[in-house]
Write a structure and sequence with these properties.
- The strands form 4 sheets. A 6-stranded parallel β-sheet has the order 3-2-1-11-12-7, sandwiched between helices. The chain has a 4-stranded antiparallel β-sheet with strand order 5-4-6-8, with helices on one face. It has a 3-stranded mixed β-sheet with strand order 14-13-15.
- It folds into 2 domains: 278 residues, HUPs (Rossmann fold, 3-Layer(aba) Sandwich); 134 residues, Isoleucyl-tRNA Synthetase, Domain 1 (Orthogonal Bundle), CATH 1.10.730.
- The chain is built from 17 helices and 15 strands.
- Helix 2 packs across helix 3, helix 10 crosses helix 11 and helix 12 packs parallel to helix 14.
- The two termini are 49 Å apart.
- Helix content is 50%, strand content 15%.
- By secondary structure, it is α/β, with parallel strands linked by helices.
- The structure holds zinc ion.
- Zinc ion binds next to loops.
Length: 475
Amino acid sequence: MKKKFYITTPIYYINDVPHVGHAYTTVAADVLSRYYKSKDEDVFFLTGVDEHGAKIAEAAKKAGVEPKAFADSLVPRFQEAWKNLNINYSEFFRTTNPKHEEIVQDLILELKDKGFVEKKKYTGVYCVACEKFLLPDELVDGCCPDHGTKPEEHSEENYFFLLSKFGDKLSKAIEAGDYEILPESRKNEVIGKIKNGLEDVSISREKVEWGILFPGDESQTIYVWIDALINYWSAQKVFNQDNIWPADIHLMAKDILWFHAIIWPAMLLALDLPLPKKVFAHGFFTIGGQKMSKTRGNVLDPNTLVEKFGADAVRYSLLREFPFGEDGDISEEKIANRYQSELSNGLGNLVQRTISMINKYEIRISKSETNSKSETRKISKLIEDLKFDQALQEIAGEITKLNQYIEENKPWELAPKGSLGWTKTDQTKLAEVLSHVHSGLVDITPQIAPFMPETAEKMKKQLETLEPDPLFPRI
Ligand SMILES: [Zn+2]
């Protein structure tokens, strides 16, 4: 059986309100999924939520409900956001799935049996919001760099995964290209950290009750991060997929690259399982030049954006603004500008005026030569390399060119003028000009489809039926 093309997003922390950062990763995964489907790949696209950990238990307690019921109540928030953004995932993962819990325990047991798990005393400072121990050099003025809160002293006896044994093996796998870490700058960061030596990592918690019980020692639960990473693997059994592993691409934001690029592959190496083919970490957002934070009240809600601009324009703008692997800035104003300049005035107007002229001058469209094949190849390569901004820039360039072509050839001047009627040369030329633009639009339709599926669908229909309908109405 042919292996499926397996794409993942992280499973998002269920207590988070879906924001534009979650949307960014998930839209990118959806674009890849739709693109590979169009290449006849059998795609399995997984997203979901991470439901365990002290933070959830705490929040559930505050809400006065059991953690599982609390998690149940939050799942629709993510599912609805993805529906609004037209995310066509294959399955939605939940870490409270009993099959998953069993598989996690089995894998931990296997790691133990192979001699890669040891019980040790650990003392350190722990950020509950991060759900992780912080190293002294990570602290900023004694506080968590991400949360600005003072981490708690923790001293407990935990089970450790012997990560320190896997530095060489990981380096070799990266060098051999068996698994890729992207972008290049992140890969170098990871290689540097491996060279400095890897420390064993704690994979259990003594005081966290809301989690999967540690096999053989029910006084501990499995560390929520370890439970979460295993979702990529356990999805096979949870969703009866026996031809998806190894994952073709794990997508995530850069702050969790360490877990995905080091800890997860090391666990797989320890278990003699194949490594994911590619791990890609994208950058962080600022919103209108400022760090996104609840306290500043500048958290962008993807649902509100979709309400204002439609799913396609939001998908387009998020990936268009800056390179996927780098940090960048986004704001409602920026999305509005893209909408106005490139979608409404650019693509929407081009489709509208072309079809209107074809109808008005009663032109019979003939298939015309465009340079679409080389353009399409170029755009495909850019999508495969996750250079979404460049792919969209190419497409925007093609649209600009077609609009310029109309301006230069002035089809309206070729049209019959009053009672003078129509010369044969003008008629032929007019048909040529409009056919060229029509063909150009037919070629652009599949290129934009992974990014703006609804628009592509509408364009296809309008170009066939020649019944124009505004694609991006003025807001
Ligand atoms: Zn923190």
